[in-house]
Amino acid sequence: MKRPNPVRPAIQKMHGYTPGEQPNPDQPLTKLNTNENPYPPPDQVLQAIHQAVGESLRLYPEPSSRPVREAAARAYGVTPEQVVVGNGSDDLLTMILRTFIDPSQVVAAPAPTYSLYETLTTIQGGLFQSIPWHDHLSLPIADLVESRAKVIFVVRPNAPTGHLVPLASIASLCQQTNGVVILDEAYGDFADDNGLPLLQEHENLIITRTFSKSLSLAGLRVGLGFMHPTLAAQMHKVRDSYNLDRLSQAGAVAALDNLAAFKPGVDAIRSQRKWLSEALKKRGFLVPESQANFILATVPQKGLKAEQWLSALKERGYLVRYFAGDPQLKDKLRITIGRPDEMKGFLAVVDQLL
Ligand SMILES: Cc1ncc(COP(=O)(O)O)c(C=O)c1O
């Protein structure tokens, strides 16, 4: 007997999200492809995780990650009731769509942007609308409002362009839309400012942060969402019951209580970002200013195409990111900023290939 395919049509049709390659650890590759931090987490964090390994692992963790919410409140001057914790910020994005999006409702974002938004919207049964950035990458506020989206995602600094829209544009979008604005600050700690001060004035604003970039903990999977307490209370209903394990909660609290320990790494990345941008510009790449821990470089018109750069760099030990499916990005490479020795090595290989 031939049974009908039980898989939802939307899932059959969609392509799953393709994360950047995570090579086998014994491959001698320098990873400049997934915007991880090149510096290890500080000892305080590693010790806290070690201390959490023990007999208490037989018990479930605190369901709402209360210790992490309290540490976040201390670190960022908010209340624990304004914080929702995710298993990575991707988990928060899923929770956001579960909370606000019914089937066929619209989710919008200026494009290009983080491609996971579209994947998660499709899984939720929503309709995703890509709205092109305006000239000079300014925020297309009127188009986003007119899309009647219930959820609007804006990354700041944006991925993969690295540019920073003015906070006034975010405030204006929050005022004009009837939907919820998600300010994804995955890379916010590498930028000159951030949107937290806007939270007080805008009840339809949610800010998401990750521990995967500036806090060197991509492997721990922790993200924070900041929002009005009434929205947070609803988000807690759709959370997986125990979405953050005991080890992650211990590490996250230690990271938040020791934020100053991450600053030297962030400062080094910001200065290497400038150094690499200038060096590539001198070699004919177009490199717009980035406020993130990566740059988006357009390859020189003469010579290798971006896709050829990707494979030539990989053969020589450097993994960067190329977005094959996006015509707007076809001549561009996204390069994560690494340590000074990694950046010098990378540039030496670029020189060989030019
Ligand atoms: C814009 C943006 N948001 C969110 C994430 C996800 O971060 P996390 O590791 O916390 O799930 C990423 C990861 O690359 C990202 O680029």
Gyration radius, in Å:
21 Å
The profile of the biggest β sheet is:
7 strands, mixed
Q: What molecules are bound to this protein?
A: pyridoxal-5'-phosphate
Distance between the termini: 61 Å
Low-confidence stretches: none
Mean pLDDT value: 96
**Strand order in the sheet with the most strands:** 2-8-7-6-5-3-4
In brief:
It is built from twelve helices and eleven strands.
Question: What is the fold's blueprint, element by element?
Answer:
Layout: H1 9-13, E1 30-31, H2 43-52, H3 66-76, E2 83-86, H4 89-100, E3 106-111, H5 116-124, E4 127-132, H6 141-146, E5 151-155, H7 167-176, E6 180-184, E7 205-210, E8 223-226, H8 229-238, H9 246-257, H10 263-282, E9 294-298, H11 306-315, E10 318-319, E11 332-336, H12 340-353
Parallel strand pairs: 1-10, 3-4, 3-5, 5-6, 6-7
Antiparallel strand pairs: 2-8, 7-8, 9-11
Helix pairs in contact: 2-9, 3-9, 4-5, 4-8
This protein binds pyridoxal-5'-phosphate.
How would you describe this structure in keywords?
two-stranded parallel ribbon; 354 residues; 7-stranded mixed beta sheet; Aspartate Aminotransferase, domain 2; 12 helices; 14% strand; Aspartate Aminotransferase, domain 1; globular; alpha/beta; binds pyridoxal-5'-phosphate
Describe this structure in words.
The chain has 354 residues and is of the alpha/beta class. The protein folds into two domains: 9-31 and 262-353, Aspartate Aminotransferase, domain 1; 43-260, Type I PLP-dependent aspartate aminotransferase-like (Major domain) (Aspartate Aminotransferase, domain 2), CATH 3.40.640.10. It has twelve helices and eleven strands. Strands 2-8-7-6-5-3-4 form a seven-stranded mixed sheet, with helices on both faces. Strand 5, helix 7 and strand 6 form a beta-alpha-beta unit. Helix 3 runs parallel beside helix 9 (246-257), helix 4 runs parallel beside helix 5 and helix 4 crosses helix 8 (229-238). The protein is globular and about 55 Å long. The N and C termini lie far apart (61 Å). It binds pyridoxal-5'-phosphate. The site of pyridoxal-5'-phosphate has 13 residues, from helix 4.
